[in-house]
């Protein structure tokens, strides 16, 4: 039994969460923070928290080696800090289960992707029992959005619309670890968005592994019956358009297989849905797409882009591409280069394929040698960079609307600029004066003119016009003025803390 001193009982235990992987994990970490704060923990300000939580990713290369390396580094810290606890959750925990406590017996808690709500109880149980607690649920116990959440940004938020995925892409471990797709009911989602907007949030990103399959996984939790509505995602986008005060709506990631024209129409006809689409291509070779078990072909993919651009000529389209999938030949790769050029991507997240244990592709024959993968990656990078630059050049001298954000421009202080995102999600560094009366706050919105294009950002050195002090900017200001008072949690509702960059990277990746 551990002894609790009276001093300990008066001092709240502190926590730190280390998050790896996609937005899904980042958003889960907001929930873990909310759960811990609800249970009386406070976020650690210094380097030695009482509880360290690893929210892991199984998708990244060498994810397990990196985790065990970090756990090893933490062991002497824990030895020198009586009462410290270490918890491991997320996809790697779901995959490795007890292996984690076998390999790192100083870990106190292991929990999975389906039972993140158990973390505080497991920590307490481990403390009282003085032994590791491993609890991995094999299916979702309840939709995680009903858990308390400590949001990181006062003006931008992610909102989960679904968890899990019904696809079986052969390079991806997500379906095995996150389970079948479960969709949240529209009323709950819209209720959460309205509550966020009431608190100052003005940009939301709808989050799911495959957002445009939304509606096919509606589940009655009482009977476990599933029933579908294929038009549900387009309806959801249109319903977002009716929410007063919601300035910008984005979503990530859609699957080309499920992309329907009603979604394009909803995007084009709903003014607060932004002209931006992140849609993973993965390969331009139909042969490789088939081996990846991605059931669209490059012609369909390009056709969707054509229709999106016909409806929204200003749309910026970004993608994910994997180079060197098993069996990829030079001719397959040449197809990817051609499609990448034709698609005119504003930006591409390109990945070098590497074996992810547990995926079908891991045991496929004809793994491409690493040096070939690296060389192809380099060639693709040159193509996508050149295309992104050409696309950005078209914006020079154009007027754009920017929503300013914290943490988007590393050199802002030195360059006297502030950074934010245009409506199409392009990163814009804007010259601003020092006069606080004329200076935007993160969350504020203004117009500016692009004076210089680079491959991955735009500069606007002519200052701002039409500066709008927004409720999001007010919420950011309130968080600065009273950081602790606003860092609260609620049931599935936002709190306020230090804002991260506006979300932009995809949720469903290789
Ligand atoms: S890559 Fe995306 S769509 Fe494919 S299985 Fe993984 S999560 Fe699902």
Give your account of this protein's structure.
Helix 9 runs parallel beside helix 10. Among the domains are: 6-135, Cobalamin-binding domain (Rossmann fold, 3-Layer(aba) Sandwich); 399-491, OB fold (Dihydrolipoamide Acetyltransferase, E2P), CATH 2.40.50. The chain has a 7-stranded mixed beta sheet. It has a 6-stranded parallel beta sheet with strand order 2-1-3-4-5-6, with helices on both faces. A 3-stranded parallel beta sheet has the order 8-11-14, sandwiched between helices. Residues 1-8 and 485-510 have low confidence and may be disordered. The chain is globular and about 65 Å long. It has 16 helices and 25 strands. Strand 3, helix 3 and strand 4 (85-90) form a beta-alpha-beta unit. It has 510 residues and is α/β, with parallel strands linked by helices. It binds iron/sulfur cluster (SF4). The site of iron/sulfur cluster has 10 residues, from helix 7.
Q: Secondary-structure blueprint of this entry?
A:
Blueprint: H1 6-10, E1 14-19, H2 23-38, E2 42-43, E3 51-56, H3 63-79, E4 85-90, H4 91-96, H5 99-103, E5 109-111, H6 119-129, E6 133-135, E7 148-149, E8 156-160, E9 162-163, H7 174-178, E10 182-183, H8 186-198, E11 203-207, E12 218-219, E13 226-227, H9 232-240, E14 248-252, H10 261-269, E15 276-278, H11 286-291, H12 298-311, E16 316-323, H13 330-343, E17 347-352, H14 370-393, E18 399-404, H15 412-415, E19 417-422, E20 427-431, E21 445-449, E22 452-453, E23 458-460, E24 464-468, H16 471-481, E25 490-491
Parallel strand pairs: 1-2, 1-3, 3-4, 4-5, 5-6, 8-11, 11-14, 15-16, 16-17, 20-23
Antiparallel strand pairs: 7-25, 9-10, 12-13, 18-19, 18-21, 19-20, 21-24, 22-23
Helix pairs in contact: 9-10, 10-12, 13-14
This protein binds iron/sulfur cluster.
């Amino acid at each position: 039994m551990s002894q609790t001193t009276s001093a300990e009982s008066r001092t709240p235990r502190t926590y730190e969460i280390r998050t790896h992987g996609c937005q899904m994990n980042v958003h889960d970490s907001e929930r873990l923070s909310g759960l811990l704060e609800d249970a009386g923990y406070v976020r650690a300000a210094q380097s030695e928290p009482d509880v360290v939580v690893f929210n892991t990713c199984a998708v990244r290369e060498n994810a397990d080696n990196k985790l065990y390396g970090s756990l090893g580094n933490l062991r002497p810290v824990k030895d020198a800090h009586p009462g410290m606890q270490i918890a491991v959750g997320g996809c790697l925990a779901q995959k490795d289960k007890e292996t984690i406590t076998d390999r790192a017996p100083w870990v106190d808690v292991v929990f999975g992707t389906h039972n993140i709500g158990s973390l505080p109880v497991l920590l307490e149980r481990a403390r009282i029992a003085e032994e590791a607690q491993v609890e991995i649920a094999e299916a979702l116990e309840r939709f995680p959005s009903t858990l308390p959440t400590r949001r990181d940004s006062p003006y931008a938020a992610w909102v989960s619309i679904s968890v899990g995925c019904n696809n079986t892409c052969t390079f991806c471990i997500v379906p095995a670890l996150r389970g079948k797709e479960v969709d949240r009911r529209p009323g709950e989602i819209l209720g959460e968005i309205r509550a966020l907007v009431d608190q100052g949030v003005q940009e939301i990103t709808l989050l799911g592994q495959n957002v445009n399959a939304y509606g096919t996984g509606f589940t009655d939790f009482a009977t476990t019956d599933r029933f579908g509505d294929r038009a549900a995602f387009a309806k959801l986008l249109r319903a977002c358009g009716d929410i007063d005060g919601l300035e910008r709506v984005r979503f990530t990631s859609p699957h080309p297989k499920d992309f329907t024209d009603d979604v394009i129409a909803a995007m084009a006809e709903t003014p607060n849905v932004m002209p931006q689409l992140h849609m993973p291509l993965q390969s331009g070779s139909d042969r490789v797409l088939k081996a990846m078990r991605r059931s669209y072909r490059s012609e369909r993919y390009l056709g969707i882009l054509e229709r999106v651009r016909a409806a929204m000529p200003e749309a910026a389209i970004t993608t994910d591409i994997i180079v060197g999938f098993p069996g990829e030949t030079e001719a397959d790769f040449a197809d990817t280069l051609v499609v990448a050029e034709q698609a005119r991507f504003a930006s591409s997240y390109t990945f070098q394929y590497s074996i992810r244990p547990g995926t079908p592709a891991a045991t496929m024959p004809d793994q491409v040698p690493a040096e070939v993968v690296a060389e192809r990656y380099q060639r693709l990078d040159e193509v996508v960079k050149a295309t992104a630059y050409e696309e950005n050049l078209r914006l020079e001298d154009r007027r754009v609307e920017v929503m300013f954000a914290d943490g988007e421009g590393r050199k802002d202080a030195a360059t006297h600029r502030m950074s934010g995102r245009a409506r199409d999600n392009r990163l814009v560094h804007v010259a601003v004066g020092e006069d606080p009366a004329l200076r935007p706050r993160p969350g504020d919105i203004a117009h500016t003119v692009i004076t210089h294009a680079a491959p991955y950002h735009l500069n606007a050195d002519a200052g701002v016009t039409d500066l709008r002090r927004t409720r999001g900017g007010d919420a950011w200001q309130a968080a600065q003025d009273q950081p602790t008072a606003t860092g609260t949690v609620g049931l599935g509702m936002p709190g306020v803390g230090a804002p991260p960059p506006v979300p932009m990277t995809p949720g469903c990746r290789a």
